[in-house]
Amino acid sequence: MTAKLTNAQIAWRAAQDIPDGAYVNLGIGFPEMVAKFKPKGREVIYHTENGILGFGEAPPAGEEDWDLINAGKKPVTLKPGASFFHHADSFAMVRGGHLDVAILGAYEVAENGDLANWSTGPGSVPAVGGAMDLVHGARRVAVITDHVTKDGRPKLVRKCSLPLTGVGCVTTVYTSLAVVDIVNARFVLREKLPGMGLDELQGLTGATLTVDGDVKDLIVPEV
Fold first, then answer.
1. pTM of the model
2. Contact yes or no for 206/173 (Cβ under 8 A)
3. pLDDT per position as a tens digit, 141-155
């Protein structure tokens, strides 16, 4: 298989599509990395469910302030104008439709936009967090993920087999191999690694990839 993007490179690519002035929530874990890659000259206001608006990337090692953490209990820095508020107020922002973008991880994404990202099934440790609110409160929901599981099974599928986080909520998936939009319950391929053929990519995808217009090369710097 063609060499895939690293998690940092996937996060970088997703960050490039965040519009100037957007209010954005980053999911716990891998999506938190997106905060490192805000494009220069663009203002992005990051929100976290535990009650911060306007945080920045993680501080350098040794400079952490453990009173300043995100929902994943990771230390963050603050941007000028940052604010703090009650957990309930933070969720009111989510549920009230005040977030422009939510970027989340995934176990599975279906071609109709269904998302499964909180449970791997019986015997797993459930971790819903704020995701069920975010997928229905944010105006746009993007997913960042490896294209396949550790054992090589597709994560982009015709229908999710795992418990759902949200129905028909995902608009774009940024993977280690491609950028895929979800349009009219179809996976529409927008970008793919330049060294990867369409047939190879389709073989690693659990539903049909539709080509609608030019498919661009997925070019990402070393980060």
1. 0.94
2. no
3. 999 999 999 999 999
C-alpha distances in Å from residue 106, one per residue of 21, 51, 143, 217: 26, 24, 7, 23
Cα distance between residue 207 and residue 126, in whole Å: 26
Helical ranges in the chain per DSSP H: 7-15, 87-95, 131-137, 198-203
Just list the catalytic residues.
Answer: 49
Q: Which two tokens stand for residue 96?
A: 């009230």
Residue 210: its H or E element: strand 209-210
* Cα 209 off chain centre by: 20
Mean pLDDT of 66-93: 93
Percentage with pLDDT > 90 across the chain:
86
The residues, any chain, with a CB within 8 Å of residue 137's CB and separated by 6 or more, are 94, 95, 96, 97, 98, 99, 102
